[in-house]
Amino acid sequence: MTRVRSRWSRPRTGDPASAPTDGGPPTAQVTPAELEDCLRACAVHSGKLVGSLDNRRIALAEQLRRLLARWAQEQPQPAPAGGTGGLIRRGARPAAGGGLSNDLLDDLLAVGNKSLDCGYDDELNLALLISDTVLTQRRNSRAGWRLRGRLLEAMGRPAAAVDAYERYLALTQEDGFGVSAKVAGLRTATERRAELLDLLRRTVPDAARHAGSPATDVWADGLAAHAEGDGERAQALLVGALVALDRAEAPEQEFQEALSHYLDLCTGSRARPTAELTEIIALFAEQRRNRMRGPLPDPLFGGVQWIGLGEFRNRIAGKSVCLIANSGKVGESGMGAEIDGYDLVVRFNSYRIDPAHTGRRTDIHATIHKHGFNWDQPVDTRLVFGGISGDWKYSLRNRLVPGAQQYLGDESLRWPVRNIGKWGTDRWPSIPTSGFNMLFLLDFLDVSPVLDLIGFDFYESGAYRLAEAMKMPITSVHEYTSEKAWVMERAQSVSGMRISLR
User: Where does the signal peptide begin and end (predicted)?
Assistant: First the structure.
């Protein structure tokens, strides 16, 4: 630890993108913010990003460009010449009733999320201003409260993050982003952290004499004492600095960094750790693990059976299969009974059940790992797709519901197009959808006498999903045109709602 943040940044002159104006740490409580001021800050920040070589800031700059273009479109009269100043002139208001339109809200949230991805102080301050603005304009915005929770967590304020996440959960019925698990993890981590600090106080009572001094100075003295070989004094000073950090409500990342450094010094100077140090290390590991991953009540997930490519092939061999799209025309198809007549019914991501149109059964749920929609719905087999192994494992650990599936695809089924088909970005540049990954897998195995696609119009009729997921845009990272061409090249027949590949 080289420094301790003793106060929070205030706005620079002409730059409203900063931490709360009272100079205190950010909280779940919203600081009222004007839309006009927020957009001005976005325009100023856009100028700062010109020429940046950081990929995250480049992505933010592009999203800022879209936001400012949207704002210009919503002006009641053409913006005057003279650059970005015309985009956000004082007194201008959005065309949609003088408030924050839905399109502008989406663009603001996108900028907030891109700012959060950057992780730098300037971008975090911009995201905080956006969060304040969104929740001032739309106090019950679920996306706004989720953004605020993620932001507060990134800024090292776990208690405030929990408050914001709970506001989000109170406004939604579908926890598709695994926020409940995140809240449980943060709470458990906070409890273990408190236990650890109490144990340190009891183990090193002399630390209390130093806890009232500035943490940075005490820490420096502790390191100096350790370098001189005065272990007892060093321990009292270093633990005193940790207590001082806690009292000063330092950002969690700073406290964790200092605590980790202290434990490194302790373990490096002892041939064999004491019982107290062993307990401290165990509490440290548990609170870190819960902060990162959340608690795991049932490590076996209700006795789920993992299956690989071969086992999955054997389970579907010789059976008729239909894949049900989440498209608008499925919701008015009247094909429910016909769909339930197949041996296996495959549904995707945030599928919605309306028995008369969609059928009742779901035998295989194929979903991207990033969202948690329908993971609690009982199915025979769940296949979770994801491009990055670590992220995929993290999602499985935090989103799987024990007892909700009998079989679960293992890593051999994680990313069929890339890992099984060996299709690189030179052959398939875009990210394959869950539907395309599933269809590719079934076509590759080629053991189903009937392989029908129901309602696959590649979102030409819009989306038909759970209500919570309907607010999510149809993402542009997928190439639906190429996927449609691949399907139609293999189609044996096309009749109304049905495309038959066998």
Answer: none
